[in-house]
Amino acid sequence: MNTLAIDIGGTKFSIAAFEGERMARRESRATDREGGRDWMLGQIAGIAAAWRREAAFDTCGIGFGGPVDFDAQRVALSTHVGGWQDFALSEWVERTVGLNAVMDNDANVGGLGEAVHGAGRGARPLFYLQISTGIGGGIIVDDRIYRGADSYAGEIGHLTIRPDGPECLCGARGCFERLCCGLWLERDHGRPAKELMRDPAFVERYVVDVALGLKTAIMLLNPARVVVGGGIGKAGEALLGPLRREMGRQITAWSRARIEIVPATLGDDSVLYGALALARQAQGL
């Protein structure tokens, strides 16, 4: 089965062609925020049309960087790029590209990718923490995404960790995402997150807030493993070493909860491999 996989994020989008479980080709482009949704849809349609002239596809999987109503297959909204609110993206793919499509939030899809193909193999339940332009979480149980009653399970980025903190784009104050995501790190500190992660003194301060957010997931879910992905997650041990130490200080000692925190092994492709797995599951494979 040939699968088209799409990853729509806040700063870039990626698209890949899979032959079975092998990634045959891949392309990424930076997001044009001024162009908004219509610019990105035009880019995706153009790439898909060019690839389909060379090879046939059977299905399409999508990870979207924002809340998704999974049952309705509609984007709820994007706080980073305009024009997506209540948009039926899967239907658009079916109508424009000519493929049956299934979509979920990118953190859910990235978690599925790491669970099936990456650092989460053999560990269930798995919690995937995506720290990138925004922050999200994916909960994987028995190789399936746990979505909750209304598709919003795992939205860890909007937990309040500092009630007196700055206002988030969601309207609340002190959200995990507002304090720790790449978008706000650069705005608040005047340096890109990639550069900040190379400053050990900054990281020691930063992981206190990351641990406050992640502690909630560990105490609530007691996952066998936590996989950290996204652009900031690529800092690797420079981030995860201090984070593990801080988690050891914050986690309630009597709980004996596991603090197995590992980096994503699929890097920028976690969501693409997750989109592959999501599409295959939709086909009953």
- How many β-strands, per DSSP? 12
Residue-averaged pLDDT: 95
Which parts are unreliable, with pLDDT below 50 for 5 consecutive residues or more?
Answer: none
Helix content estimate: 25-40%
Shape: globular
How many DSSP helices? 9
Distance between the termini: 10 Å
Query: What order do the SSEs take from the amino end to the carboxyl end, as H and E?
Result: EEEHEEEHEHEEEHHHHEHEH
Strand order of the largest sheet: 3-2-1-4-7
Largest sheet: 5 strands, mixed
Structural class: alpha/beta
- Strand percentage: 15-25%
Radius of gyration: 18 Å
Short description:
The chain is of the alpha/beta class. The chain has helices at residues 36-52, 89-96, 106-117, 176-180, 182-189, 193-196, 200-221, 237-250, 270-282, and strands at residues 2-8, 12-19, 22-30, 59-64, 68-69, 74-75, 101-105, 126-131, 135-141, 144-145, 225-229, 261-263.
Describe the structure.
The longest helix has 22 residues, at 200-221. Helices cover 36% and strands 22% of the residues. Helix 3 (106-117) packs across helix 9 and helix 7 (200-221) packs across helix 8 (237-250). It is built from 9 helices and 12 strands. The model has no long low-confidence stretch (mean pLDDT 95).
Q: How would the blueprint of this fold be written?
A:
Elements (H helix, E strand, L loop, with lengths): L1 E7 L3 E8 L2 E9 L5 H17 L6 E6 L3 E2 L4 E2 L13 H8 L4 E5 H12 L8 E6 L3 E7 L2 E2 L30 H5 L1 H8 L3 H4 L3 H22 L3 E5 L7 H14 L10 E3 L6 H13 L3
Parallel strand pairs: 1-4, 4-7, 8-11, 11-12
Antiparallel strand pairs: 1-2, 2-3, 5-6, 8-9, 9-10
Helix pairs in contact: 3-9, 7-8
